[in-house]
Design a protein that fits this description.
There is one protein chain. This protein is an all-alpha fold. The protein has one domain (7-111). It is built from 7 helices and no strands. Residues 4-76 form the DUF4372 domain.
Length: 130
């Protein structure tokens, strides 16, 4: 039986957690939150993005199918319901994720500044998929 980390958990280890927690604290994202934290929300949305999920129902069904593996994927909540995810998406400050994206862009830009892009652009272009 496999004893290593799940692939999703390995990908999420590259997330700068200190920066993420600083962004959450700056925007009070986890204020009055009991179980489903901003980190759990980020993991759920990253899982949805990486596995091409298109609806909250689809995200919920796929995460519930993981069951006991949720903890090993990095989630700290026991289950994820569609209502909880919808409420989190509606009420949590979007600025948390914008600040995190700006930090990640700041890390990636110097790493890939000298790589050929293949297309000549006059200005910087950022494309994010929701």
């Amino acid at each position: 039986m496999h004893k290593g980390k799940l692939v999703f958990a390995q990908v999420m280890t590259h997330l700068p957690l200190t920066t993420f927690r600083r962004c959450v604290a700056a925007h009070r994202g986890d204020f009055k939150v009991k179980e489903f934290t901003c980190l759990d929300q980020f993991f759920a949305m990253a899982f949805a993005q990486l596995t091409y999920r298109e609806s909250l129902r689809d995200i919920e069904l796929n995460l519930r199918a993981q069951g006991a593996r949720l903890y090993h994927m990095g989630f700290r909540c026991s289950t994820i319901s569609r209502n909880t995810l919808a409420n989190a998406n509606a009420t949590r400050p979007w600025q948390i994720y914008a600040d995190l994206a700006q930090h990640l862009i700041g890390i990636a830009r110097p790493l890939y500044a000298s790589d050929p892009f293949g297309v000549d652009l006059d200005a910087t272009v950022y494309a994010f998929d929701s």
